[in-house]
Amino acid sequence: MENIKENNNNNKSEVLIATLYDDSFRIYIANTTNLVLKATKIHKTIKTSSAALGRLLTVTGLMGLMLKQDEIINCKINGDGEIKYILGVADANGNVKGEISNPNSYIVCKDKLNKLNVSEAIGNGTLTVIKDFHLKEPFISSIPLISGEIAEDFAEYFLTSEQVPSSVSTGVLVSKKVINAGGFIIQVLPNCDNVLIDVIENKLKSLKPFTTLLSENFSLEDIIAAISDNNYKIYEKRYLQYHCDCSKTRFKKILGRLDVNSLKELSLDEVTEINCHFCQKKYKFSRDTILKIISDKEIKK
Ligand SMILES: [Zn+2]
Known about the structure:
CBS domain Like; Hsp33 domain; binds zinc ion; 11 helices; 2 domains; alpha+beta
């Protein structure tokens, strides 16, 4: 029992939600080390790919916590760099999953050889955010990438697509594996005085990188206190976890949407194996199952 409990905790990443400077700003801040470790293990990413995937999942996870129950957010980055494509998906309950087209990117900055160059690995491209509200039309917004560093790209997204001036920070420290990861989103609330925006901007400029703070054993609350000169109120503690909700039933439904010719092709094989892109779980469907899907489709006609 103890072990199971421990494993569950190991999978969870803590998030604090607080207001700063008397309700002038809202902050969502997370230590996503566990989440990113699990993601990088599943996708077998190295170095720059781990950093890029971890940064995207951190921000996507935090944005998921801003949703209402049952809503889902997809954040996609398409670039002309060697990573090409990363996707993060999150819900309002803190479940986060993702995928990356190239797990093997290892590009470092030319001037700082110990710094991974996420910007170059992503290149020029777009950030697309899709919020699925189920009943209503989904919200879709796509912006050109500002830097490919991910945090700045999301700050630009919040400003131009949601009209909420925000500061976004995210980092992943990678050695052989992920050492730590995390980030925050600070949103300016409607009542905020312009003077306070300057104050917080200066605070953020003098703040060490997020992963350095984690390495120096700063807690999330310590970081909030540092940003706000101790003027903060924590009102919620949440968790993020890497979790894929795939199932054999769901993949069977997806098979059912294929046209009969494609299904007939699959039925030539004894077993059809489908690999979940988010968690790498493999699902096997026998020839009989595929033939049954075909006959069900033909009856429906
Ligand atoms: Zn899955």
